[in-house]
Amino acid sequence: MASELGDFLRARRDRAQPSDLGLMSGGTRRVAGLRRDELALLAGVSSDYYTRIEQGRVRPSQQVLAALARVLRLDGTEREHLLRLAQRSAHMIIRRRPREVVAAGTLDLLSRLDDLPAIVLGRALDALAWTPLGAALLALSDDGERNMARRIFLLPETRQLYPNWDAVAAELVAHLRRLSAARETHGELAELIDELTVASGEFAALWSRHDVTAGVTRRKTFRHRLAGTFELEPDVLTLTRDEQTLCIYRAVPDSPGVDALALLNTLVASGLAGTNQRPADIGTDVTG
Fold first, then answer.
1. Residues 45-59: pLDDT tens digits?
2. A GO molecular function for this record (predicted)?
């Protein structure tokens, strides 16, 4: 699949001097310039992911584009051109990519959980739907970042939500590692992993450990700006047909979590929680 972005990157690969980048040059090389796998390695992404960038099959993040521009030693004009081509390619990909939807039955179940924080996660850990209390707990909104991995590693306010952020981050990466093997043909998941590997040194370090876990399994401690510090127990239901999961948080009886959820419920009912208070619509488009 040809793309103008891919043509530009290939032309700049051909122009690059491997010796300037510490790579072997001379008669033993079969191609001029950089090979795809060499550029991918130097930019900190997988060879498969970079190949899909050239083919116009994924939307590279700003961090990935910056890494490619750095390795290819693009000047200011070329960098601007690269960003414009990537933006145009992204619009084409969004039009091609099918929307990830939440089944009506799942939304009906979610509507019966209004007194609990609950969230439906998609194949690549995008928040597709949530209860009002889920929005209040996790600061979710229709126009905010919905991907839970990006939120954990790229949003400072999410880091502040978890006093034991290191453990939460490690568990999430181990879960992604397991998903990446189970869903190896799912391009959005591979795209997310490569993006975070470039954007977050902490993610890259955790990813290199190859730890694996079955998902959100441990009791979570929250430090909420309105409800204080408390623990909640996660229950995770796998929605096999759609490769989605429903995560429900409940308070341990007689714990501070009971009072915290009661307070959040009151704030939601009074409109003071400051977050989106409705589940996402059926057919929510999370592609862009």
1. 888 888 888 888 777
2. DNA binding
